[in-house]
Amino acid sequence: MRNILVTGGAGFIGSNLALALQAKYPDAWIVVVDDFRSGDFRNLQGFRGGVIAADVSRLDWNAQFKDTVFDAIFHLASITDTTVHDQLLQAHDNVEGFRKLAEFAAPAGMPVVYASSAATYGMGGSLMREDQVPKPANIYAFSKVQLDNWAREYGRKHPAWKITGLRFFNVYGPREAHKKAAASMIYQLYLQMKAGRNPRVFRAGEQKRDFVYVKDVVAMLQRALSAAGSRVYNCGSGQPFSFNEVIGEINRALGANLKTEYIENPYGAFYQNHTEADMELARKELQFEPQYGPAAGIADYIAILEGKERL
Predict the structure, then answer these.
(1) The CATH number of the domain covering residues in 176-209+240-274+295-305
(2) Terminal alpha carbon distance of the chain
(3) What is the pLDDT of residue 270?
(4) CB-CB contact of 222 with 19 (8 Å)
(5) Which residues of the chain have pLDDT under 70?
(6) From CA 90, how far away is CA 92, in angstroms rounded?
(7) pLDDT value at position 123?
(8) How far is CA 101 from each of CA 34, 56, 76, rounded to the nearest angstrom?
(9) Which letter, b or e, does each residue of 252-277 get, where b requires 16 or more Cβ atoms within 10 Å of its Cβ?
């Protein structure tokens, strides 16, 4: 690895990846492209590579990088706030950013690993498999379906080139604090409980999410470079965990015994009660196995938040 590109590298997952790559390849030149709409410069403290402040959907890729050939490109840039309902903005920035990057990478065969999303599966509450028909429930999810569609078409046109997608489930971990209200439910509950307040969740707290620790996500992003061809994989823990169980683990990590307050769910049928990634394809084709189950990941994360462990 000599040259590596990370788009969205000042964001939550992107910054964790950029710094992990820097530690793994200390002699590589790592370039981050980020427009800082949903990233934060503080996430890149200690980063020794280059930062280009730019919107990937409006960047002239060939003019910017000229004859540079990247050994790996990780595309994590997108509008990640699912409450942004401007359909033109979401579709343009997310899809065009990906398409322009692919047009830049394909001629030289630069391998691309990009961020898709479990949101492409829609509201279904069963085990989620990569071969399911997409059912996006919002424009953000729809834009991610388009990335998968374009990637499939690029893979067909360029069979020797690898463009691999990862459908992220509910990612949590260090360097997400800048997301504030959009940060993970695990982080939100930690903040409540750290302040001594009773945690509040929708009645009766048995809704389950496939929470995946960012350290596993970073590992899988790198493992995806070894994919035999172009395709998309689930990126989760494969272990759905209820909000009640999350609260129990945070209580345990903090040495607390805070009682849960249950509130009515105002979203009714539009609220997703269960997400669960089928990780069999990743095990079979990438030989990838998540190292952090929900309990272990939460314990590690809170130890970092509490200053007991270093990042």
Answers:
(1) 3.90.25.10
(2) 23
(3) 62
(4) no
(5) 268-270
(6) 6
(7) 84
(8) 13, 8, 11
(9) ebbeeebebeeeeeeeeeeebebbbb
What local confidence, expressed as pLDDT, does residue 268 receive? Answer: 66
**Any idea which fold 3-171+211-238+277-292 has?**
Rossmann fold (3.40.50)
**Spans of all domains in the chain:** 3-171+211-238+277-292, 176-209+240-274+295-305
Give the residue from 5, 67, 15, 16 showing the smallest Cα distance to 36: 15
Which residues have a Cβ under 8 Å from the Cβ of 63 and sit 6 or more positions away? none
Are 217 and 168 a contacting pair, CB within 8 Å? yes
Q: Where are the beta strands (DSSP E) in 181-242?
A: 200-202, 208-209, 211-213, 232-235, 241-242
What pLDDT score does 184 carry? 96
Pairing of strands 241-242, 208-209: antiparallel
Q: Which pLDDT belongs to residue 80?
A: 80
**How much is the pTM?**
0.96
Q: How much is the pLDDT for 153?
A: 96
The sign of the torsion formed by the CA atoms of 206, 141, 175, 221 equals positive
Q: Do residues 240 and 273 touch, judged by C-beta distance below 8 A?
A: no
Evaluated on CA atoms 96, 100, 106, 112, the torsion sign reads negative
Q: How many helices (H) and strands (E) does the chain have?
A: 10, 13
Residues catalogued as catalytic? 140, 179
Q: How far apart are CA 152 and CA 144, in angstroms?
A: 13
Rounded alpha-carbon distances, angstroms, from residue 304 to 130, 218, 236, 277, 292: 33, 17, 21, 26, 15
Phi, psi at 220, each rounded to 5°? -70, -35
Neighbours of 306 (CB within 10 A): 12
